[in-house]
Design a protein that fits this description.
By secondary structure, the protein is α/β, with parallel strands linked by helices. About 40% of the residues lie in helices and about 15% in strands. Helix 5 (about 165-175) runs parallel beside helix 6 (about 195-205).
């Protein structure tokens, strides 16, 4: 078993430890083309756990539901305390899987979602439970109040928020400690550095970057668009991988790639190492569906970057295009504030 460093989520009485590198499981079942063979994905999850990567990230919307069911099958026979399961609630897409977005943070929805996820995962508790997006109709204090009850009942251990604004993070943290904030952070996407990252660090909240490899761009480069399924998220919605943006980003890819020879690593390892070097409070969750790619990601833990290397990478990484479709960005951290608590009227 590889010795993967672990980090602690939260401060004081909060003590959930996760592997410094996690495993994003979405692509095994959802968004990146058809679901992958179940037996292969279970083998990959077992390989990750045996390698010391025990932080598994999923959501009830992935599939929907099928990714949680997959992880539940993979966890059978594995000591529960060996794995830290993170899942999410509250986000629903339209019939095409990427269109209309519905967000729910009402107390009854929070509780029903948690109970359903527990059953699909086949576990007695969820280690880290996130609000996948912030409901613009419900004060965050109301959503957090129900999550706090679930903690007190032992159904979840720690609370997280995904794509939350600084003000929402502060309001939520005042109700109950928020252990982790999930957000997109990579050489590909850096806008969170202005206000969200400082807010997390001020409050002692750990940072869980998703898509640290730019949705596969840093792993495959321009070839990532070759042979994608028609329903692959990147082919349907990723404007950075289309048209003039794609042409520009290919040139950036080539410039950044030049550093890999000096560092003796792949570009995927270089990009992931950049995220890992952001601080001891950062635990990225790159996703993959192949053991060989997982092993490559694991190698990023051994890549050493100097302050000069970091600055050089940051100066080169001038990518173009929005990181997500507008209908999804509308619900992300810059727009993720909720109504004041005084406005809430329960039904």
């Amino acid at each position: 078993m590889s010795h993967v460093k672990r980090i602690k989520l939260g401060m004081g009485s909060q003590g959930l430890e996760v592997s410094a590198l996690g495993l994003g499981c979405m692509g095994m079942s959802y968004a990146y083309g058809p679901a992958k063979p179940e037996a292969d994905m279970i083998q990959l999850i077992h390989h990750a756990i045996n390698s010391g990567v025990t932080h598994l990230d999923t959501s009830d919307v992935y599939g929907p539901h099928t990714n949680e069911i997959l992880i539940g099958k993979a966890l059978k026979g594995i000591p529960r305390e060996k794995v830290q399961v993170a899942t999410k609630f509250g986000l629903r897409f339209g019939e095409d899987g990427f269109g209309e977005v519905q967000i729910h943070g009402e107390p009854e929805f929070v509780r029903a979602s948690c109970e359903a996820s527990l059953k699909r995962l086949g576990v007695d508790y969820i280690d880290l439970y996130y609000a996948h997006r912030i409901d613009p109709k419900v004060p965050i204090e109301i959503t957090m109040g129900e999550l706090k009850k679930l903690v007190e009942e032992g159904k979840i251990k720690y609370i997280g928020l995904s794509e939350a604004s600084p003000s929402t993070i502060r309001r939520a943290h005042a109700v109950h400690p928020v252990s982790a904030i999930q957000l997109e952070w990579s050489l590909w996407t850096r806008d969170v550095e202005q206000d969200v990252i400082p807010t997390c660090r001020e409050l002692g909240i750990r940072i869980i970057p998703f898509a640290p490899l730019g949705s596969g761009f840093f792993a495959s480069g321009p070839k990532v668009m070759d042979n994608l399924a028609d329903d692959d998220y990147r082919k349907v919605c990723a404007s950075r991988l289309q048209g003039e943006n794609f042409d520009h980003n290919k040139r950036v890819f080539e410039r950044v790639s030049e550093m890999t020879e000096r560092k003796g690593c792949t570009l995927a390892q270089l990009a992931l190492a950049w995220v890992l070097h952001q601080g001891e409070d950062v635990s990225p969750i790159p996703g993959t569906t192949k053991i060989e790619n997982f092993n490559q990601n694991l190698g990023a833990l051994s890549v050493k970057l100097t302050a000069q290397d970091m600055a050089e990478l940051e100066s080169l990484a001038s990518f173009k295009g929005p990181r997500m479709p507008e209908q999804i960005l509308a619900h992300c951290y810059k727009n993720a504030d909720t109504p004041p608590l005084s406005s809430w009227k329960s039904e």
